[in-house]
């Protein structure tokens, strides 16, 4: 059972590592689908905070249906409540910092380009917080994947130094969320998913009434879909963090950008430039190297 995972070694077996890579890829792909296939179908211009609130309200509804109908109390049973709450607040910091960055004048593409230092921040936080021993090859491959992701975005230019703060906050909050998810691997999945939603819904509930726009029936279904896809994505991330140290799998987050590029290419809304193709090639080759060689490396894990 999941509760027994606390007794497992902090290192991981080859099958666990491969499963973790696949699950992190699933998270990245679902994230891209959420943004590019589901979220874009909203017909009214809702405030970002309302969309985020509705997403996690739908998420919480799914949690209640899956785990809470028979035994509601199991949803909030955790041995690490402070860490659960702190981690969940990071999921509030991430979208709000993005909104502030754009409102402050950062181009969307530029803000996302800065964000894609997040895989490297995951390695840094994993070393500091979880005491994961991150080898040089992990830094190199993750760096290549991040550079590839930035090249695929192809921003017109990075933000000015003074505009870097909020995109970096966005990247840092997400990176720390991933690392703390690894820290909570011994906790029940139901509790992890419950606190993730509650920590976002409660603070936003004080603000959302000011900007609330009643969704149309069509948009209500889309908002439920956003919550459902987001829920599945976070379950995949949770399972990935459970199976292997996040320093092994952080590079696979770049599949979010690759999937977004593929969706845009299929829709014929983007052309593949030389820089974009080079970024895609670097990302794919670095991830292929991880998939091929990392499961065979012994002794990778926490110190």
Can I get a quick summary?
The protein is mainly alpha-helical and 303 residues long. It has helices spanning 14-38, 48-68, 81-103, 108-115, 118-129, 136-153, 165-183, 189-205, 208-211, 217-243, 246-249, 255-266, 274-293.
Give an overview in words:
The chain contains 13 helices and no strands. The protein has 303 residues and is an all-alpha fold. Helix 1 crosses helix 12, helix 2 packs antiparallel against helix 8 and helix 3 packs antiparallel against helix 7.
- Give the SSE string: HHHHHHHHHHHHH
Structural class of the secondary elements? mainly alpha
First-last Cα distance: 25 Å
Approximate strand percentage: under 5%
Helix content: 55-70%
Mean pLDDT: 88
Number of helices in the DSSP assignment: 13
**Count of strand segments:** 0
Shape: globular
| Low-pLDDT residue spans | 1-10
Report Rg: 19 Å
How is the biggest beta sheet arranged?
none
What descriptors fit this protein?
single chain, 303 residues, mainly alpha, 13 helices, 69% helix, 0% strand, disordered N terminus
Q: What's the SSE blueprint?
A:
Layout: H1 14-38, H2 48-68, H3 81-103, H4 108-115, H5 118-129, H6 136-153, H7 165-183, H8 189-205, H9 208-211, H10 217-243, H11 246-249, H12 255-266, H13 274-293
Helix pairs in contact: 1-10, 1-12, 2-8, 2-10, 3-7, 3-8, 4-6, 4-7, 5-6, 5-7, 6-13, 7-10
